[in-house]
């Protein structure tokens, strides 16, 4: 099995041949005994891994008009839009992460305290942060972390990664995302350390979260919430969630056994944070995004062009 070091070495070699020596994909493929498709994938990895960095000296966003339309329609502070790659999840996540990183680079440094929630899209954005300015910022998770193997999309890991990118200070919440029972959750919420961290998160001036869907659950929630519980949430009217806090089409909390087990800020506390960034995209998120925007759950949006068109009621091709 190839190690990460071996893969990085091969990626670096291919990147040098292409960017420094000017060889074509076909020439590299013949020289290295690879397929052209493999060369293309390795060059994509070169950018994803930070081995190759491309700088575009322009401030003009490619979707300026649709960003302006989103701001006007939903009274947002700001919107960022990435290209839509349809069913290609890897390219979609990468593109959304690039645009999310631009959003974080602009909004994090002026903040004094950032609260961050469970999200693969937020994790992709943090991973794309480069050359960020140092900021005297505190980063706090809005909820506990998923039990088991460490994951970059867990709030605790995200808080650490975001703080490190800006040379800030990270705080941890000593609790799971979901307790095994409502009774266990209530005991944990009364713990002095847990209560202090949740109070610190509630006092943040910037919130950065993903928007979940009830149609395709995140990996983290799938390991903590049963299929029967997801079905019950859908029957109760849930259309999406923020860090396991599910909401209905009116943006109101959906009472459930899942909600009773969450160790984290509730929806009213999240809404009370002044600047609320939602990073999410994909067809399964359209209903949840529309609700989060129309009910003020978020007031800054990072999404893809297809999702932007959907929440604006436009033909996707016009985006």
Automatic annotation (TrEMBL):
It holds the Pfam family Sugar-bind. It comes from the Bacteria. Residues 64-312 form the Sugar-binding domain. Keywords: DNA-binding, Transcription, Transcription regulation. The keyword DNA-binding applies. One of its GO terms (molecular function) is carbohydrate binding. The keyword DNA-binding applies. SUPFAM superfamilies: NagB/RpiA/CoA transferase-like (SSF100950). Belongs to the SorC transcriptional regulatory family. This is Lsr operon transcriptional repressor. It comes from Pseudonocardia kunmingensis.
């Amino acid at each position: 099995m190839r190690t990460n070091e071996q893969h990085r070495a091969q990626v670096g070699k291919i990147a040098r041949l292409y960017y420094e020596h000017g060889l074509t994909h076909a020439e590299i493929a013949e020289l290295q005994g690879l397929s052209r498709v493999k060369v293309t994938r390795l060059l994509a990895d070169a950018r994803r891994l930070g081995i190759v960095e491309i700088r575009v000296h322009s401030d003009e966003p490619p979707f300026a008009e649709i960003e302006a339309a989103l701001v006007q329609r939903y009274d947002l502070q700001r919107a960022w839009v990435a290209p839509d790659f349809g069913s290609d999840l890897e390219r979609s996540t990468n593109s959304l992460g690039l645009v999310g990183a631009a959003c974080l680079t602009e909004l994090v440094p002026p903040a004094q305290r950032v609260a961050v929630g469970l999200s693969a899209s937020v994790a992709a954005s943090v991973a794309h942060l480069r050359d960020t300015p140092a900021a005297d910022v505190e980063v706090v998770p809005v909820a506990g972390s998923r039990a088991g193997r460490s994951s970059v999309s867990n709030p605790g890991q995200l808080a650490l990664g975001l703080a490190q990118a800006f040379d800030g200070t990270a705080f941890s919440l000593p609790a799971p995302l979901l307790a095994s029972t409502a009774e266990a959750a209530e005991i944990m919420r009364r713990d002095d350390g847990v209560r202090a961290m949740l109070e610190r998160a509630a006092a943040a001036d910037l919130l950065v979260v993903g928007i979940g869907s009830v149609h395709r659950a995140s990996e983290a929630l799938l390991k903590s919430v049963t299929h029967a519980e997801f079905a019950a949430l859908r029957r109760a009217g849930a259309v999406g969630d923020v860090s396991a806090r599910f909401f209905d089409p009116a943006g109101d909390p959906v009472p459930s056994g899942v909600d009773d087990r969450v160790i984290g800020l509730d929806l009213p506390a999240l809404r009370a944070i002044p600047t609320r960034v939602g990073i999410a995209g994909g067809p399964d998120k359209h209903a949840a995004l529309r609700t989060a925007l129309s009910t003020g759950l978020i007031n800054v949006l990072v999404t893809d062009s297809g999702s932007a068109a959907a929440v604006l009621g436009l033909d996707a091709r016009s985006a």
